[in-house]
Design goal:
single chain, alpha+beta, 8-stranded mixed barrel, 5-stranded antiparallel sheet
Length: 774
């Protein structure tokens, strides 16, 4: 057979497939081998005009009856040929048929061949697999039946019917589009008419299942869309060391890195921005070791510094053996990094003042210890606490207190060397790490300078503050060899400075540990002091120059404990304030003093005036005025016989206590300002708060006996009082010289050891009855 079998004749002639098939069968029945000439003879055709169509139909018959034909030919050849010729011809036939059949089956497509009469004349196994056509339909060789079966499987059977009809009427070869199946498969179709002598003698349909291709294309489309729409930067590079050329970058990466696609594609990853070049070694390590990895880049982009997190993931080829690309997913973590930096800063810095906190300080001390071990240099710590700072918070509120802390911290920083560390470790407590402190003398000199700086007035809006500090000092390694011990011992030294009267410094010694133990004991014993009747009041007489008598006394609390013995008010009152017991103790003082006054009155001591100290905590108590009024009423005494002593710090509470002081005045109770001139002074508040007495602090009185006494402060206080029509009381008078000076300068009243120490109730009664005069 010739190659003409591959094309059908174009003209309709008297020869068709059934006639050729019948002729072939007849020849075989005669035990002859079918050939073109024998088929023509059987069909009674004597010219060559039909050779091509006969040859084509015979070719189609061979496809459909290959196995049977082969056996028939073998039988023919056995009877007509000699053994050698038979073997040779049979082998050639087998090879030819096998090649033809293998060609049809080897194709990747599904093949279907239909003759001009609509009869199925050829197909391959892939077609059966595609359409799942039952055997009986294939054996019927009826295109109509097969078409109906296929139409039952597709989504749009009418489209398929129209396509077949259209192609048969207008047999143009080429793609026929896709055909969706009801089970979700998608088949791509191609059509090729079989033409012999310009006549369509058959139709060949080719089908290809493109379902998986569609899925892959859809997946690829979604992936591309996801990469394009992603807010994360995506850069894909070739695995082509050393360049690692960029093959793709999505819009987000272009926007993030401020680059465009044209300038980056086919360029090395390491030249598009300095962030990649700076971290090239780290990135190359991930590339070369063929593993996933992450790199954090610091990139200057525009006028900003961006922090980028780059997650690198290798992409393998289809065989999963070699890496073809690397995907770089870029996340902008600038905000996270900034937040992390803020959190790291906050973790080691005080939120209010911005100073290093205790954690930072401890790390700094550890670092300094390492340096001291190698360089043989000492360093010191100064533990600084603002005296009576609690009063400022209680009176003016925490807002003003916080502002003062900020001003105080700046002053501390300006008073030390740059290499020293100033830290706030809580509340009003600060620590200075003095890097170059060779000995205790160096620390004392620095401490003196700090105390002088702290004594200068602080001003904020309408407020002025005169504050003092108590400072504890330690030296490494004498006072400790680790941060915890050094800080603890500096704290102990600071508390000792407070116990000694505040506005002082104290260097740590081992004996100070006893001080801390005593403080704990005092705290424990204070809770039951009232219940156990351990408190007593002593009364110090107050001398009046004009009347030349003692008609007044200041009540002073005393405490004797079975375990601790006599405990000084200077020692236990600050602790009582710290643990919140001062209001309870203050009520006890008021009730005891007024009750004692009533007792004296019943014993013949007439017209006495008793002065009672009141703390800021008491005055802030909303029931304070009612309590004192009720106590006076129950004891049936005149309120004018009571003076309440308050400290200057209560001026800071003007907005909170003015109404209470006014109510006390309305009751007839007078107000005295204790320790005037040592704290917060605002003359405008003296009138607002209905003050009647100013008390000159003992520290000013003591200066009268000094060689270079400057009388300006005392004279100014007396002048202010006289101008504002207040009475002036000087406390702590111990010498004749002090007495004479105060009398000469028109001080109204004095009290102190010159006349008498504080006395018990019975001794005070005897003292008054004797009316000891000067």
């Amino acid at each position: 057979m010739t190659n003409s079998r591959e094309n059908k004749p174009a003209q309709t002639i008297a020869v068709d497939y059934p006639k050729v098939e019948h002729a072939v069968n007849e020849i075989l029945n005669q035990r002859k081998r079918p050939t073109l000439e024998k088929i023509k003879t059987q069909l009674n055709i004597h010219d060559n005009t039909c050779d091509e169509i006969i040859e084509f139909y015979f070719y189609m018959w061979e496809q459909r009856h290959a196995t049977t034909y082969l056996e028939d030919i073998k039988q023919v050849d056995k009877t007509t040929l000699g053994p050698q010729e038979y073997t040779k011809r049979a082998k050639q036939l087998e090879e030819s048929l096998a090649m033809m059949r293998a060609t049809i089956e080897a194709t990747a497509d599904c093949l279907l061949m239909i003759d001009r009469n609509g009869k199925l004349i050829g197909y391959n196994q892939k077609l059966i697999n595609l359409y799942k056509v039952p055997v009986e339909i294939l054996e019927s060789k009826d295109e109509t039946v097969g078409l109906q079966y296929v139409m039952s499987q597709v989504v749009d059977p009418q489209e398929l019917a129209d396509l077949v009809m259209r192609k048969y009427q207008n047999p143009i070869p080429g793609s026929c589009g896709e055909m969706p199946f009801k089970d979700g498969r998608i088949v791509e179709r191609y059509y090729q008419p079989q033409i012999v002598n310009n006549e369509v003698v058959g139709h060949v349909w080719s089908f290809r299942d493109v379902t998986e291709k569609h899925k892959q294309e859809e997946s690829l489309r979604l992936t591309n869309r996801a990469m394009t729409a992603s807010t994360h930067g995506i850069i894909i590079v070739d695995n082509d060391p050393p360049n690692y050329t960029i093959t793709y970058l999505n819009p987000a990466s272009q926007h993030l890195l401020k680059i465009n696609e044209e300038s980056a594609l086919q360029k090395s990853l390491f030249i598009i921005t300095s962030g990649f070049s700076k971290n090239q070694e780290e990135i190359l390590d991930i590339f070369k070791n063929k593993h996933k990895g992450q790199v954090i880049l610091e990139c200057p982009i525009g006028n900003r510094i961006l922090w980028l997190e780059v997650n690198i993931d290798p992409v393998y080829d289809k065989d999963q053996k070699n890496i073809s690309h690397f995907v770089n997913i870029i996340n902008d973590i600038t905000k996270n990094k900034e937040l992390e930096n803020i959190l790291q800063y906050k973790a080691v810095h005080d939120a209010l003042t911005g100073l290093p906190n205790k954690t930072y300080l401890e790390d700094a001390i550890r670092y300094r210890i390492k340096g001291a071990l190698t360089e043989n240099e000492n360093f010191g710590l100064l533990f600084i606490d603002i005296d009576r700072f609690k009063n400022i918070n209680d009176t003016l509120g925490h807002g003003i207190g916080d502002k003062l802390l900020c001003m105080f911290s700046k002053r501390l920083q300006n008073s030390v060397q740059k290499h020293d560390v100033v830290a706030r470790i809580g509340g009003d407590e600060f620590i200075v790490l003095v890097n170059n402190a060779h000995d205790a003398d160096t620390l004392h000199a620095i401490t003196k300078r700090l105390m002088e700086a702290c004594r200068k007035k602080f001003s904020y809006t309408d407020h002025e503050f005169n504050i003092t500090v108590s400072i504890g000092m330690v030296l490494y390694p004498d006072c400790g060899s680790d941060p915890e011990t050094l800080i603890q011992n500096a704290d102990i030294a600071m508390y000792q400075a407070k116990y000694a009267g505040r506005n002082r410094t104290c260097f740590y010694t081992k004996t100070l540990n006893h001080t801390m133990s005593r403080r704990v004991d005092i705290e424990n014993q204070l809770h039951d002091a009232i219940k156990n009747n351990e408190f007593q009041l002593a009364y110090q007489p107050i001398y009046n120059f004009e009347e030349n008598n003692f008609k007044k006394a200041e009540s002073l609390i005393r405490w004797h404990n079975k375990k601790l013995g006599n405990v000084s008010p200077a020692e236990f009152i600050p602790i009582a304030e710290d643990i919140g017991m001062m209001t309870t103790i203050g009520r006890w003082i008021i009730e005891t003093a007024i009750t004692q006054y009533k007792q004296w009155e019943s014993e013949g001591l007439k017209d006495l005036v008793i002065s009672i100290n009141v703390s800021a905590k008491q005055l802030l108590d909303e029931n304070f005025v009612d309590h004192i009024n009720q106590t006076i009423y129950q004891n049936e005494i005149l309120s004018k016989q009571i003076i309440l002593e308050i400290t200057e710090s209560l001026f800071l509470l003007e907005g909170k206590v003015s109404e209470k002081l006014k109510a006390l005045n309305n009751l007839g109770i007078k107000i005295a300002i204790d320790d005037f001139g040592t704290g917060y002074s605002n003359l405008n508040y003296l009138n607002k708060l209905h003050v009647s007495y100013l008390k000159i602090d003992k520290s000013f009185v003591d200066q009268i006996d000094e060689n270079h006494f400057n009388d300006s402060v005392i004279l100014a206080i007396i002048a202010i009082a006289k101008r504002m029509k207040f009475k002036v009381i000087a406390e702590g008078v111990e010498t004749k010289n002090q007495l004479d000076f105060l009398q000469k300068n028109e001080c109204d009243e004095i009290q102190g050891y010159y006349f008498s120490k504080p006395l018990g109730a019975e001794d005070f009664k005897l003292f008054i009855k004797k009316q000891v005069a000067i």
